[in-house]
Specification:
Elements (H helix, E strand, L loop, with lengths): L6 H13 L2 H8 L3 H15 L4 E3 L4 E3 L1 H28 L5 E6 L7 H12 L4 E6 L2 H9 L5 E4 L8 E9 L1 E6 L19 E5 L5 H13 L5 E6 L2 H9 L5 E4 L10 E6 L6 E8 L7 H9 L6
Parallel strand pairs: 3-4, 3-5, 8-9
Antiparallel strand pairs: 1-2, 5-12, 6-12, 7-10, 7-11
Helix pairs in contact: 1-2, 1-4, 2-3
Family: Belongs to the LysR transcriptional regulatory family.
Protein name: LysR family transcriptional regulator
Keywords: DNA-binding, Transcription, Transcription regulation
Length: 299
């Protein structure tokens, strides 16, 4: 046949794979729909593999197409990242570190890291994105993030995980709640209250830890509301719509009519960890990890 796969084939394929609609994909690519169809058919002929199942009503991926989509997303993202690093190096910078984080990491760990990077490696750029645990893990695995700050108990084999901050938990109560710090003996005193928690999908480890704190105190909490944002949780508590248990460091940076009672005499701790991919070749990553880990070798 004489045809060879080219970068344009991959970009055309991804557009259709993401839209699952030839007309929309063609509009996105600024080419004609028949032209796009020919390119995809040509690609399938070269690979000798059907990538899409086509019908009058819908377009869907074959198993081979789904596999190719995941691989190409990784490859093309890595290609874009490599090009970006080359641009930064050309301009005299030392690259960029893309950082994902949970809100609680912004209270201490990330500000300290950014300040240290600026002082010791001023030519390293940083970008920040607040994401859930699962979204960070997925982004790190796909090379969309270099590091993530998460609360996870385990990660896949090709990901490093290392604890960077251990925090206690605190109960969050409305400011006028009729209990003083000196009267507070434990969570069991609050067993009849409604609880506001971070959503389980946002942080399964955190959710399970809070449940274990309550179960150790002899009750299962009544969960009335869930959120992925600390400010929303505190606002619900402020308006007497429930109470919460959060990592103690989250009390800083918010100015609401709530009070925090630290749970010092329980075994549970809020562990914040950093994750990064073992084969990440970002030249700026090592500088960042040297500062975080306090050592020269991150492997």
């Amino acid at each position: 046949m004489g045809y060879q796969l080219e970068l344009r084939h991959f970009k055309y394929f991804l557009a259709v794979a993401e839209e699952l609609h030839y007309r929309k994909a063609a509009e996105k690519l600024c080419i004609s729909q028949p032209g796009l169809s020919r390119q995809i058919k040509q690609m399938e002929e070269i690979l000798d593999t059907p990538l899409f199942v086509r019908s009058k009503k819908k377009v869907s991926l074959t198993p081979a197409g789904a596999y190719l989509r995941a691989e190409l997303q990784y490859i093309l993202n890595h290609l874009d990242l490599t090009t970006k690093h080359l641009e930064l190096l050309k301009d005299g910078d030392s690259g960029e570190v893309r950082i994902g984080f949970l809100g609680s990491a912004m209270q201490n760990v990330i500000p300290d890291l950014l300040i240290a990077l600026k002082e010791k490696y001023p030519k390293v750029r940083t970008s920040l994105e607040e994401l859930s645990n699962s979204a960070q893990l997925d982004a790190v695995m796909k090379d969309k993030l270099d590091i993530g700050f998460v609360r996870l108990a385990r990660v896949p084999e090709d990901i490093h995980i290392h604890p960077v901050f251990e925090d206690t938990f605190s109960v969050v109560l409305p400011e006028a709640y009729p209990i003083l710090s000196r009267e507070f003996e434990g969570v069991h005193q609050l067993s009849g209250e409604n609880f506001v928690l971070f959503a389980q999908d946002y942080s399964p480890l955190y959710y399970d830890t809070i449940m274990s704190i309550c179960e150790d105190a002899g009750f299962t909490p009544k969960v009335s509301h869930k959120s992925v944002h600390a400010q929303t949780i505190f606002k619900l508590v402020e308006n007497n719509l429930g109470i919460a248990i959060v990592p103690t460091s989250l009390q800083y940076g918010f100015h609401m009519r709530v009070k925090f009672l630290e749970l010092k005499n329980i075994p549970q701790r809020a562990i914040l960890s950093v994750i990064w991919k073992k084969d990440n070749r970002n030249p700026a990553l090592k500088h960042c990890m040297d500062l975080l880990m306090g050592q020269k070798n991150i492997n």
